Amino acid sequence: MTSKVGKESDALARAIGAVVEGLTFYDLANAAVAEMRVKVAFEEMGRRKKAQLAKLEAVAGTNATHAAVMPGIYPLDAVAKVECYVCGFVAETKAMPSACPSCGAARYAFEKEIALAKAWEIASETGRHSAVLFRASATHAAGAARTLLEDLAKEDEGQAVQADRQLAELRA
Ligand SMILES: [Zn+2]
Q: Which structural domains are found in the chain, ordered by start?
């Protein structure tokens, strides 16, 4: 193993960490909200992250996913837990109960309200951040890995621009 290869696998692990974090965030956000347009937006962004992960794993191998470290780009704290608005009982979003185990309120008592504008803001901001991370990773990679990282950076920059456009339309 040369150090060049080591740097490249580190770069890929960083990129995978960012994508896994995005996928985790969008899955949780999709589960936590009820408003259909917001749900659909998060679902679509999650699908894109899933496709990016598949491309990275095709180059880096699935072992790299285990070594990946989440960079803290996405606001995971905002969606990891849900709270019953009747009694304040807190549950993991992943295991959102069908009724509150504390007060018996129906499932909707746990659903979060995230405005569509907020969803696009998150998409714009995180898209830009992950694009920067992909570009920085690309400088440590060569060949197919470098091309892929540059493509992913372009894709996320494009997504951020799209999100800005959606946001501008909402505010018009
Ligand atoms: Zn409750």
A: 3-76+117-171 (1.20.1260.10)
Q: Is residue 83 a contact partner of residue 111, using CB atoms and an 8 Å limit? A: no
What spacing in Å lies between the alpha carbon of 97 and ligand 1's midpoint? 10
For helices 116-138 and 36-60, give the axis angle rounded to 10 degrees: 10
Q: Which among 69, 89, 62 has a CA at the least distance from the CA of 24? A: 69
Report how far ligand 1's centroid is from the alpha carbon of 94 (Å): 17
**114 contacts 33 by C-beta, under 8 angstroms:** yes
Instruction: Please state, in angstroms and rounded to a whole number, the distance separating the CA atoms of residues 112 and 145.
Output: 38
Strands (E), 16-162: 81-83, 90-92
Residue whose tokens read 């304040």: 88
**pLDDT tens digits, 49-104:** 999 999 999 998 887 788 788 999 999 999 999 999 999 999 999 999 999 999 99
